[in-house]
Design a protein that fits this description.
Helix content: 10-25%
Oligomer: single chain
Subcellular location: Cell projection, Cilium, Flagellum; Cytoplasm, Cytoskeleton, Cilium axoneme
Order of helices and strands: EHHEEEEEEEEEEEEEEEEHHH
Main location: other
CATH topology of the domain at 120-257: Histone H3 K4-specific methyltransferase SET7/9 N-terminal domain
Region (Disordered): 217-257
Largest sheet: 17 strands, antiparallel
Radius of gyration: 28 Å
Number of strands: 17
Number of helices: 5
Distance between the termini: 35 Å
Biased composition (Basic and acidic residues): 235-247
Keywords: Cell projection, Cilium, Cytoplasm, Cytoskeleton, Flagellum, Repeat
Length: 257
């Protein structure tokens, strides 16, 4: 193993000795600087393979994290893999020691992100997968989903809509329930809110009107059609979606880590 060398150890005495008592404050400041340099060196990484400067190498940091890949000017650049002592794993492109370009990041809990990185942040186009099988595909800015996105949930449920500053279900969007029925309209904080249309699996409009906090606003009447689409049919359909209504609370938590 090769530990990076420094001139600090050789220079501590020669820098400190010449100062007189009149310059004690200055000498003390210099000493603190040098001691800080010592601890910085002590914290420095250990090169396990290669020279860790300008070639394919492997390096281990004092905290236990490991990087293996290409180096340029003593920093990870190009393609490489990173393992943290906490269990995180990243494989992909690097630039000046930062995740930059295409890559895959796997978290200790099993969730993972595959897509674009910009200076250590998820930014660009990417896919985020949760351990339960949920998948979010879309655009990212500053580590958060932003803009058009598609969220696929277990049970063949899917949400197609707009993400604002990482919040799910804000703006206009479509939610496809497990039975094939759909809600098309406005969302706020993960709930149906504003004007929206509820459509049966066969395409028949069951309800068209205003919603507030995931509930139909009194006075907004559904389209009454014989047998299907009547108020009773809508109520029964809503009762059958009791578990699906809980989705908003669950999905609200499903944001990029």
């Amino acid at each position: 193993m090769l530990v990076r060398e420094s001139f600090v150890f050789k220079k501590i005495i020669s820098f400190y000795t010449p100062f007189s008592l009149k310059r004690s404050l200055g000498s003390f400041a210099i000493l603190l600087f040098l001691v800080g340099g010592y601890y910085r060196i002590f914290d420095d990484a250990v090169c396990l393979e290669g020279n860790c400067k300008d070639s394919l190498s492997k390096i281990q940091f004092r905290n236990g994290d490991i990087y293996q890949g290409t180096f340029v000017d003593s920093k990870p650049q190009g393609f490489g893999a990173f393992w943290s002592r906490k269990g995180d794993y990243y494989q992909g492109s690097w630039f000046r020691g930062m995740k930059h370009g295409k890559g895959k990041y796997v978290y200790p809990n099993g969730t993972e992100y595959v897509g674009d990185f910009t200076f250590n942040k998820k930014e660009g186009t990417g896919i985020f997968k949760w351990a339960d099988g949920s998948i979010l595909e879309g655009s990212w800015i500053g580590d958060h989903p932003q803009g058009q996105g598609v969220l696929s949930l277990p049970g063949s449920r899917k949400f197609i809509g707009y993400y604002q500053k990482g919040s799910i279900y804000d703006g206009e969007g479509v939610f496809i329930y497990s039975d094939g029925s759909k809600y098309l309209g406005s969302w706020k904080a993960g709930m149906r809110h504003g004007f929206g249309v509820l459509v049966a699996p066969g395409g028949i409009v069951l309800f068209r009107g205003m919603w507030e906090n995931d509930q139909k606003v009194p006075g907004s009447q559904p389209f009454d059609r014989p047998g299907i689409g009547s108020s009773t049919s809508v109520d029964k359909l809503e009762e059958g979606k009791t578990r699906d209504k809980q989705t908003s609370k669950t999905i609200k938590k499903k944001k990029g880590n």
